[in-house]
Amino acid sequence: MCKGLTYFRVLQLYKRIIKISYSWQAINHPAKTLEEQIYIRNQARELFRKNKNVKDSNEIEEHIREGEARIELACHYRNPYPRLVNLPTYSLPPNHNRIRFRTEYETEDMSRPIYLKSFETKEEILDNDEQFKPN
User: Fold this and answer.
1) Would you list the domain boundaries of the chain?
2) In Å, how far are 5, 6, 66, 87, 99 from 62, measured between CA atoms?
3) Which end of the chain is more exposed for a tag (fewer CB within 10 A), N or C?
4) Taking every annotated instance into account, which residue ranges of this chain make up the domain Complex 1 LYR protein (predicted)?
């Protein structure tokens, strides 16, 4: 995809998120409207800044799809926070006493919905790094 077109799509996504944040109304707890608006803006800023140096067009496309999916879910359920998912039993990580096979990592990665890709915690990243370090 053309670099200019990709840049335009990313900019449009960011603008859309910011516009949604200003018009956001909390449904269940109207007193939390301002808190949710600030959460949406801060999340957008944080994730866009975190990924500003991404050059791979496929990875940029993944991030755009993730952003669009999160917008659709937030607007549909009127909840700006990420939704929990039910992963199949076989994709959950086993206890830390045994070695995991590559297919288990691949299955776990494929089972994770696109709208949760940016929510990998630091602990998960550190665990993955420790498992691949030579002793």
Assistant:
1) 3-77, 89-132
2) 15, 12, 6, 20, 30
3) C
4) 9-72
